[in-house]
């Protein structure tokens, strides 16, 4: 890993004009998909490019695969190159939603073999409120070449998750809020509940009310059940609704020294699209 994953706004301020730094704005709103790009157009960190969750960081939605399917690696690599990201770039990603969308791009870059990627804590509002520079100028991007080296081991697919449901050496972690996990409400997907056997670990427990990541000791305590499983040698697969909000949990565990954690990218929206897949409700 090239330096820390989580960096402060002060860290970025001191490095933002270094030639190998590429800043990426990933602000997004699931309920208003145009909001992130509109916010970027209105005001962003100087030099930042914008990558959209729906159009840049996801493949087209099909019958299966979830609401935000992973793009083909070569297609994603081409998009990254168009954004000025090369294999030699140090990428700094930010959003304004507690790191959820920034963590998705962090995971995707690592999936393609790129470790020099950082997530800025707190997000754009904290940057702006600190009096740091912002602009509405359109960034002129010099295209680059990005050659992917895909780490297939980071990804768990639906068939594999289904095969491992009853295995004691595997732990599934659901990153959605408790009400969605228990099946009491489902505002987005067609079915409510969770994958049988999964425990609940809401991703927002990693950050405070300002959107800043909690101290390492606090995160270790929050993730104690998962850490215990990892220390016991169990395989951990993390999921959420569509492979986005699971990424902060993967990042948090990576920061605690557990890079082997895997992501089920299709997540609940993929799992629940198969009529034959079992669904659980309530607490495990």
UniProtKB/TrEMBL annotation:
PROSITE patterns documented for this protein: RHODANESE_1, RHODANESE_3
Gene3D superfamilies, alphabetized: Rhodanese-like domain (3.40.250.10)
Full protein name: Sulfurtransferase
PANTHER family given in the database record: SULFURTRANSFERASE (PTHR11364:SF27), THIOSULFATE SULFERTANSFERASE (PTHR11364)
InterPro entries: Rhodanese-like_dom, Rhodanese-like_dom_sf, Thiosulphate_STrfase_CS, TST/MPST-like
Keywords, comma-separated and alphabetical: Repeat, Transferase
Annotated ranges, domain Rhodanese: 17-136, 166-280
Lineage, broadest ranks: Bacteria, Bacillati, Bacillota, Bacilli, Bacillales
GO molecular function: thiosulfate-cyanide sulfurtransferase activity
């Amino acid at each position: 890993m090239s330096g820390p994953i989580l960096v402060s706004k002060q860290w970025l301020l001191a490095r933002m004009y270094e030639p190998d730094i590429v800043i990426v704005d990933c602000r997004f709103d699931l309920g208003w998909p145009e909001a992130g790009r509109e916010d970027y157009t209105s005001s962003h960190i100087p030099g930042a490019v914008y990558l959209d969750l729906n159009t840049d960081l996801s493949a087209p939605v099909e019958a299966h695969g979830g609401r935000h399917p992973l793009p083909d690696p070569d297609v994603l690599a081409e998009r990254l190159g168009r954004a000025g990201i090369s294999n030699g770039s140090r990428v700094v990603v930010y959003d304004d939603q507690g790191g959820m969308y920034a963590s998705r791009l962090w995971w995707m870059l690592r999936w393609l073999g790129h470790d020099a990627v950082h997530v800025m804590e707190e997000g754009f509002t904290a940057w702006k409120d600190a009096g740091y520079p912002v602009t509405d100028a359109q960034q002129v991007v010099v295209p680059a070449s990005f050659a992917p080296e895909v780490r297939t081991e980071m990804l768990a697919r639906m068939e594999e998750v289904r095969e491992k449901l009853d295995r004691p050496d595997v732990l599934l972690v659901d990153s959605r809020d408790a009400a969605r996990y228990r099946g009491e409400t489902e505002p987005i997907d067609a079915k409510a509940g969770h994958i049988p056997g999964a425990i609940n670990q809401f991703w927002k427990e990693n950050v405070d009310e300002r959107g800043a990541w909690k101290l390492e000791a606090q995160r270790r305590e929050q993730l104690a059940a998962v850490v215990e499983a990892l220390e016991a040698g169990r395989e951990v697969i993390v999921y959420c609704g569509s492979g986005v909000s699971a990424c902060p949990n993967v990042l948090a565990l990576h920061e605690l020294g557990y890079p082997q954690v895997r992501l089920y990218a299709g997540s609940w929206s993929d799992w629940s699209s198969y009529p034959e897949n079992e669904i659980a409700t309530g607490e495990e």
